[in-house]
Design goal:
Layout: H1 2-17, H2 19-29, H3 36-48, E1 52-55, H4 62-72, E2 77-81, H5 88-92, E3 93-98, E4 103-108, E5 115-119, H6 126-138, E6 140-143, E7 146-149, E8 155-160, H7 173-176, E9 181-184, H8 190-202, H9 214-224, H10 231-245, E10 259-261, H11 265-281, H12 289-300, E11 305-306, H13 308-312, H14 317-327
Parallel strand pairs: 1-8, 1-9, 2-5, 5-8
Antiparallel strand pairs: 3-4, 6-7, 10-11
Helix pairs in contact: 3-11, 10-11, 11-12, 12-14
C-alpha cells in the first residue's frame, strides 16, 4: 500500500516536471514536419547525457532538427563539417600567439557549445574522431596546459551518410559504442513531403519560442533518477543484452553463427537510462516493459557485430534484435 502511494506521488511529480516536453514538441513541430521518432530520440539524449549517432540520407532535416531544438532550449548550437583535412585543433581549439602581449592565449573551438552537430563524422580521420569522442566521454577539453569543462547540457549529434563510403573513415566499434543511441532516419510520407514543400514555398520562417531553460533540463535529469524501475524490468534488460552474447542459452541457437560479438555493459546501462527517459516523456513515474522495447533497437543496433555469414544472407542487426525481443520473456 505504501509503495502504491509512493508511486502515485512520483507520478504527480513527474507529470509536473515533464510538462515542458509537450511544449518542446510543439515548438519543434513548427519547423520540422514529421520525424517525431528523431525528435523524441534527441530529447532522450538530452535527458540521459547520452550522445546520438544519426544515420540517414541527405536532406532529412537532421541539422534543422538539432538547431531548432537548441533554439527552443535557449542553448548554444555549433556545427562542425567533418572533412578529410580536419585537425583536432579545428574541433577542440588551440593556442594562439598574441604579439601585443608576447604570450599565447587559448582560442576555444566549436566543441564549446551545448548542442554540437558533427556532420558526416566518418569523413574525418581517426585522430579527429578520437578527439571528439574523448571530449564526449570526459566532458572536458585540454588545450595546452589548461583543462576546460564543457557546460551542461552537452549533446553531440553525429551524422553518417549510409550510401557514400568512398573516402570515409568508418568509426571503430569501440568508439561507436560511446554513443547511447544509433538512430536511423527514413524518408517522410507523401502527406509530410507535401507539407514540407508548401512551407518552403511560402517563404515564412516560424519564430521559435524559448520554452525551457538549460537549468530546467538539468533539474529534469535529477528528477528522472527517481523514476521507479522494478527488479523484473532490470532482469528483462539484462536478459535482452545477454541474449546478444549467448543466444543459445535463450533458445536462439540459430543466431549463434550470425553474431560475431554481442552488446557491451554500456548497452545495459543505456537501455535502463533510455527506458527511464521514455517513461519521463510519457509523463510516467515508473518504467514498463514497453519502454524498454520502444528504445531497444536504437540502443542495440550499433553494438551487435555481424558475421560474414549474416551479411551474406542479408541479415541485419534489426532482424536479430526482433528475434531476441520475440523470444525473451516479458515480465
Amino acid at each position: 500500500m505504501q509503495q502504491h502511494i509512493d508511486i502515485q506521488a512520483l507520478n504527480q511529480q513527474i507529470q509536473i516536471e515533464s510538462a515542458f516536453v509537450d511544449q518542446l514538441t510543439l515548438e519543434t513541430a513548427k519547423v520540422i514536419v514529421g520525424q517525431e521518432h528523431m525528435i523524441e530520440r534527441l530529447m532522450i539524449g538530452l535527458l540521459t547525457k547520452g550522445h546520438i549517432l544519426l544515420e540517414g540520407m541527405p536532406g532529412l532535416a537532421k541539422t534543422l532538427a538539432i538547431k531548432t531544438l537548441a533554439q527552443a532550449v535557449d542553448a548554444q548550437f555549433s556545427r562542425i563539417q567533418f572533412t578529410p583535412d580536419l585537425l583536432p585543433a579545428d574541433v577542440l581549439g588551440t593556442m594562439i600567439y598574441n604579439p601585443a602581449r608576447s604570450e599565447f592565449a587559448v582560442r576555444k573551438g566549436p566543441i564549446f557549445a551545448n548542442f554540437v552537430l558533427a556532420d558526416e563524422i566518418n569523413r574525418a580521420p581517426a585522430k579527429v574522431q578520437s578527439a571528439l569522442l574523448e571530449a564526449m566521454q570526459e566532458r572536458q577539453v585540454t588545450i595546452g596546459s589548461e583543462t576546460f569543462h564543457l557546460e551542461e547540457p552537452f549533446l553531440v549529434l553525429a551524422t553518417q551518410n549510409p550510401i557514400e563510403q568512398e573516402g570515409t573513415y568508418p568509426l571503430p566499434e569501440a568508439q561507436v559504442d560511446r554513443f547511447l543511441l544509433k538512430v536511423k532516419i527514413d524518408y517522410p510520407t507523401k502527406a509530410e513531403e507535401r507539407s514540407i514543400v508548401r512551407r518552403n514555398l511560402s517563404g515564412e520562417t516560424p519564430f521559435i519560442h524559448k520554452v525551457v531553460t538549460p537549468e530546467a533540463l538539468l533539474r529534469a535529469r535529477e528528477v528522472m533518477h527517481g523514476i521507479y524501475m522494478d527488479e523484473k524490468i532490470e532482469q528483462y534488460i539484462i536478459d535482452i543484452v545477454f541474449a546478444t552474447r549467448n543466444p543459445a542459452e535463450y533458445g536462439l541457437k540459430s543466431l549463434t553463427p550470425l553474431i560475431s560479438y554481442g552488446a557491451s555493459p554500456r548497452a545495459s546501462i543505456g537501455l535502463a537510462q533510455a527506458a527511464r527517459a521514455i517513461a519521463f516523456l510519457r509523463h510516467r513515474g515508473y518504467v514498463v516493459p514497453e519502454d524498454v522495447r520502444a528504445i531497444c533497437y536504437d540502443v542495440l543496433r550499433h553494438r551487435i557485430g555481424l558475421t560474414y555469414e549474416a551479411e551474406a544472407e542479408n541479415i541485419t542487426q534489426e532482424n536479430i534484435i526482433e528475434k531476441i525481443l520475440n523470444k525473451v520473456e516479458v515480465p
